[in-house]
């Protein structure tokens, strides 16, 4: 599992580069964010949550059963929307609420 | 590139801005507003450490009807008696106070109508742990006395006059070697992952239970400085959801899903009482005996429960929810396959780490340890790490009274600078850091009880591991880098090799099998209470790991370092 960055969408804000716990993101020569090594990602989604333009998409490696879907988030106050896009373009959305504890 | 020295000075240096480190910094501010603190953090403290993605629950809490004494009994039983009762008990007594503090900082904790926390099992409470690290970081950020040095990788302590008087570290952004002088130092770097070949050895190699960025730096620095370490042989192996390596407790405790084998039989009870090591070991054995795959029996849960599970996993291990959605089959339709991970060294779950006194002082004056890097006290989890941060902070504050900064010795600084700059060789060497890391993981897997060895080891195999790890350590000092990120990776693999070296000696010393899978000595297959109800400790002396056996410590003892 790892992330892919769409440099067309990246607005060069640099917030993702700050939070990566593995310091895996860096500024490339055009000022956009690039990933050092997709294999080094822990999958914590810290960068995904920081990325307002949704340039960073999270996916499961084929070695752990990934089939091509990607996930990104949108923040709306205390709500965090998690959007999963399948290879055929169909979308599923789940929403977690920062004010609510886990049921389990 | 060549690094240059920059000197810094502070009252207390905290190495690692994770769970324990942040809590220590907050505690210092509450007790003494004029004490200057530097937190040196190798990433950025907003999301660094174990809590990056969040945490599923608070797993160490004294719920109604339980007591610190009952928590101590649980830990003692689970760890087969080899614990520092003084450490576990002093931790257990403060679990609820630190939880209340986290709630004040904004952590959402589930409450019932009477305002009581809702428990999940006998020691756990339900939370929304997604933002627990940003909440901690925000509280640290509001403390005017604390300076956070993000993206500074600490590599060694400065030891002078027999005391730890600071640390060396380099910036990941600028060619600077920081020489940080401090009156006292708290080590809170976390434990060590990546020693053994992981479950997913290919593309998803870092999709592991513990943070792949916790590389055992604190242990390794302590080992090199001659600090005494304890119980490395009690490795931690997590029982996790297959592939995603996501937690199983949320399902097992949350919806009471039993562990079943391929035939649908509940197998855990066939292996004895439900201890942490046995829960894992039983799954390993079922697979070994040809009765796998093993599952958590989730089929038949309601769609509401399934939806709640999706959300709970998004708050701590989002890969699992993505997997369910992507497969188009959730836990209500398909049981969740489970597996054991590769072994880790982590003092928040087992007893591995610095040998500390009751005040969390290590055996080197001036150095304190808290959280996963501190030993003797298993089942700390997040809240226990907070408590240790608190206790270490108060002890360090006490220690620095009347202590002056000892200026770093010029010769020592120059020697360290030369050693670091040596890695910027103009010519690329034969091996890359990644090759050394993979070789180390392969050696540990084959010869020191990794996954493919069924977690078992014997003396003959350990001799091979010892030799190979020694050779890899030699190679690692010949590695080459052109940038600061790569320099960090070199130091990480060196640190891991030091941890492996100590681990192998500890595994060899314990001539029994006390914790199946965690410590499974194929030459001595039984537990031996007559000879081994004691601690295996060690210290690096003249390049060799010297073993020291120590007696157990009771609940009300106040342990002090004497010899």
Summarize it.
The complex is a heterodimer of chains A (104) and B (563). By secondary structure, chain A is mainly beta.
Give your account of this protein's structure.
The complex is a heterodimer of chains A (104) and B (563). In chain A, the strands form three sheets. Chain A has a three-stranded antiparallel sheet, with no helix packed on it. Chain A has a two-stranded antiparallel ribbon with strand order 1-4. In chain A, strands 2-3 form a two-stranded antiparallel ribbon. Chain A has a single domain (2-97), classed as 2-Layer Sandwich (Alpha-Beta Plaits), CATH 3.30.70.20. Helix content of chain A is 10%, strand content 34%. Chain A has helices at 15-19, 46-50; strands at 2-5, 25-27, 33-35, 56-59, 70-76, 79-85, 91-97. Chain A is mostly beta strands. The model of chain A has no long low-confidence stretch (mean pLDDT 96). In chain A, strand 2 (25-27) and strand 3 form a beta hairpin. The longest helix of chain B has 26 residues, at 484-509. In chain B, helix 9 (303-314) packs across helix 10, helix 13 packs antiparallel against helix 14 and helix 14 packs antiparallel against helix 15. Chain B has helices at 19-31, 68-78, 85-92, 95-104, 132-141, 217-225, 249-254, 276-288, 303-314, 318-327, 381-400, 410-421, 433-447, 459-476, 484-509, 529-532; strands at residues 4-15, 37-40, 57-58, 108-109, 125-128, 146-149, 152-160, 163-171, 176-187, 229-230, 239-241, 259-260, 294-296, 336-340, 353-354, 367-369, 456-457, 520-521, 535-541, 544-550. Chain B has 563 residues and is of the alpha/beta class. The mean pLDDT of chain B is 96. Chain B starts with a strand and ends in a 13-residue tail after the last strand. The radius of gyration of chain B is 23 Å and the shape is globular. Chain B contains 16 helices and 20 strands. Among the domains of chain B are: 4-190 and 346-411, FAD/NAD(P)-binding domain, CATH 3.50.50.60; 239-340, Flavocytochrome C3, Chain A, domain 1. Chains A and B meet through strand 6 and strand 7 of A and strand 4, strand 5, helix 7, helix 9 and helix 10 of B.
């Amino acid at each position: 599992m790892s992330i892919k960055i769409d440099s067309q969408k990246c607005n060069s804000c640099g917030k993702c580069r700050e939070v990566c716990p593995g310091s895996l993101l860096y500024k490339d020569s055009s000022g956009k964010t690039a990933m050092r090594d997709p294999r080094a990602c822990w999958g914590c989604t810290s960068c995904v949550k920081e990325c307002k333009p949704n340039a960073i998409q999270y996916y499961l490696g084929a070695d752990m059963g990934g089939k091509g879907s990607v996930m990104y988030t949108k923040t709306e106050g205390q709500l965090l929307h998690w959007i999963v896009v399948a290879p055929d373009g169909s979308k599923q959305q789940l929403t977690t609420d920062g004010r609510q504890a886990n049921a389990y | 590139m060549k690094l240059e020295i920059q000197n810094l000075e502070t009252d207390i240096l905290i190495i690692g801005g994770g769970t324990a480190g942040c809590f220590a910094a907050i505690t210092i501010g509450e007790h003494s507003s004029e004490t200057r603190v530097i937190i040196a953090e190798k990433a950025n403290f907003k999301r660094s450490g174990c809590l990056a993605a969040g945490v599923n629950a608070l797993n160490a809490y004294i719920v109604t009807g339980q007591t610190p004494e009952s928590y101590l009994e649980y830990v003692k039983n689970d760890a087969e008696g080899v614990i520092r009762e003084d450490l576990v008990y002093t931790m257990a007594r403060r679990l609820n106070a630190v939880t209340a503090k986290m709630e004040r900082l904004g952590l959402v904790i589930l409450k019932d109508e009477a305002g009581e926390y809702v428990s999940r099992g006998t020691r756990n409470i339900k939370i929304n742990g997604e933002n627990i690290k940003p909440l901690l970081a925000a509280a640290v950020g509001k403390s005017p006395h604390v300076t956070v040095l993000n993206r500074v990788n600490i590599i060694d302590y400065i030891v002078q006059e027999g005391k730890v008087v600071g640390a060396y570290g380099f910036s990941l952004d600028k060619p600077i070697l920081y020489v940080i002088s401090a009156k006292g130092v708290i080590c809170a770097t976390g434990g060590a992952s990546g020693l053994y070949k992981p479950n997913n050895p290919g593309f998803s190699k870092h999709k592991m239970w513990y943070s792949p960025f916790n590389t055992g730096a604190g242990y390794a620095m302590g080992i090199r400085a001659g600090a005494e370490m304890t119980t490395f042989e009690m490795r931690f192996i997590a029982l996790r959801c297959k592939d995603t390596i996501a937690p199983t407790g949320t399902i097992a405790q949350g919806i009471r899903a039993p562990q079943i084998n391929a035939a649908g039989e509940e197998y855990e009870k066939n292996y004895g009482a439900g201890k942490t090591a046995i829960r894992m070991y039983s799954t390993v054995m079922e697979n070994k005996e040809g009765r796998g795959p093993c599952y958590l029996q989730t089929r038949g849960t309601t769609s509401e429960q399934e939806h709640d599970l999706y959300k709970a996993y998004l708050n701590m291990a989002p890969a699992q929810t993505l997997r369910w959605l992507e497969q188009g089959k959730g836990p209500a339709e398909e049981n969740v396959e489970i597996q054991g991970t590769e072994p880790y060294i982590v003092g928040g779950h087992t007893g591995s780490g610095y040998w500390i006194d009751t005040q969390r002082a290590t055996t080197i004056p001036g150095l304190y340890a808290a959280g996963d890097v501190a030993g003797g006290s298993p089942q700390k989890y997040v809240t226990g790490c907070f408590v240790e941060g608190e206790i270490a902070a108060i002890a360090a504050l006490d220690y620095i009274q009347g202590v002056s900064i000892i200026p770093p010795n010029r010769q020592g600084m120059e020697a360290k600078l030369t050693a670091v700059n040596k890695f910027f060789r103009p010519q690329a060497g034969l091996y890359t850091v990644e090759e050394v890391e993979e070789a180390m993981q392969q050696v540990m897997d084959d010869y020191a009880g990794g996954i493919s060895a069924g977690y078992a080891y014997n003396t003959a195999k350990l001799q091979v591991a010892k030799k190979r790890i020694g050779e890899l350590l030699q190679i690692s000092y010949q590695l080459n880098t052109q940038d600061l990120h790569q320099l960090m990776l070199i130091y990480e693999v060196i640190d891991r090799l030091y941890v492996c070296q100590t681990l192998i000696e500890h595994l060899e010393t314990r001539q029994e099998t006390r914790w199946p899978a965690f410590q499974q000595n194929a030459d001595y297959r039984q537990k031996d209470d007559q000879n081994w109800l004691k601690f295996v400790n060690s210290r690096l002396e003249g390049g060799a790991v010297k073993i020291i056996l120590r007696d157990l410590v009771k609940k009300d003892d106040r342990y002090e370092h004497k010899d």
